[in-house]
């Protein structure tokens, strides 16, 4: 089992999580290689402004419509990868996301939360729709096929794998959230242990910086 990079600590849980080098020193050195250099952010998360990964996606929503980051231009986007049968980390992340929107007050409408499934074999469009709505009606679940899921995870440096559990399986996966500015640029990685208050402060700063 891979282990998390030294800069971060991850929550203990019934499942194991790795962050697969996303925030390793090498990963941070790669940030900025695309030439985008806006003012740096003093955030509670990790500023990855200019990172060459997590640039975009082509995924389907529960209605079968293809979605990309361009669809959410003008809003900040909070994106998390997981699966609906996750026993703890995914529900915690989405509950935190719901609280973040509450803490933002009127600015909450400027934050779109996206949940991308790593388990398309079980997370059907109907399952995704019901799952995200249970946390907030505005949350959007996205999916693709098994091959597309692997390609998307690689492009976002998201670790995941199936773990057999008797006649079924669970999923190991990284537990980070990506935060994009209203121009669709990845800016911040939010660690799982951050509070909703800390995350909301980062979103507010991002909206203010890009207003």
Secondary structure blueprint with pairings:
Layout: H1 25-30, E1 46-47, E2 59-60, E3 66-67, E4 76-82, H2 89-104, E5 111-117, H3 125-133, E6 140-142, H4 146-155, E7 160-165, E8 168-173, E9 177-180, E10 186-190, H5 196-209
Parallel strand pairs: 4-5, 5-6
Antiparallel strand pairs: 1-10, 2-3, 4-9, 7-8, 9-10
Helix pairs in contact: 2-5
Keywords:
Glutaredoxin, disordered N terminus, single chain, 10 strands
Descriptive report:
- Helix content is 26%, strand content 21%.
- It is α+β, with helices and mostly antiparallel strands and 211 residues long.
- The chain has a single domain (41-133, 140-209), classed as Glutaredoxin (3-Layer(aba) Sandwich).
- The strands form three sheets. Strands 1-10-9-4-5-6 form a six-stranded mixed beta sheet.
- Strand 5 (111-117), helix 3 and strand 6 form a beta-alpha-beta unit.
- The radius of gyration is 16 Å and the shape is globular.
- 37% of the residues are buried.
């Amino acid at each position: 089992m891979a282990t998390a990079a030294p800069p971060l600590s991850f929550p203990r849980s019934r499942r194991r999580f790795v962050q697969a080098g996303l925030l390793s020193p090498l990963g941070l050195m790669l940030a900025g290689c695309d030439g985008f250099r806006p003012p740096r952010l003093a955030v509670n998360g990790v500023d990855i402004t200019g990172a060459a990964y997590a640039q975009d996606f082509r995924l389907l929503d529960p209605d079968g419509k293809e979605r990309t980051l361009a669809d959410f231009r003008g809003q900040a986007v909070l994106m998390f990868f997981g699966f609906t049968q996750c026993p703890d980390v995914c529900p915690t992340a989405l509950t935190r996301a719901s609280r973040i929107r509450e803490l933002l007050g009127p600015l909450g409408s400027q934050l779109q939360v996206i949940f991308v499934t790593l388990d398309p074999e079980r997370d059907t469009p109907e399952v995704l729709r019901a799952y995200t709505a249970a946390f907030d009606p505005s949350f959007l679940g996205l999916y693709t096929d098994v091959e597309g899921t692997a390609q998307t995870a690689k492009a976002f440096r998201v670790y995941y794998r199936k773990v057999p559990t008797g006649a079924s399986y669970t999923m190991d996966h990284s537990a980070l959230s990506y935060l994009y500015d209203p121009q669709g640029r990845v800016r911040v990685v939010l660690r799982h242990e951050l509070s909703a208050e800390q995350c909301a402060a980062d979103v507010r700063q991002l909206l203010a910086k890009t207003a």
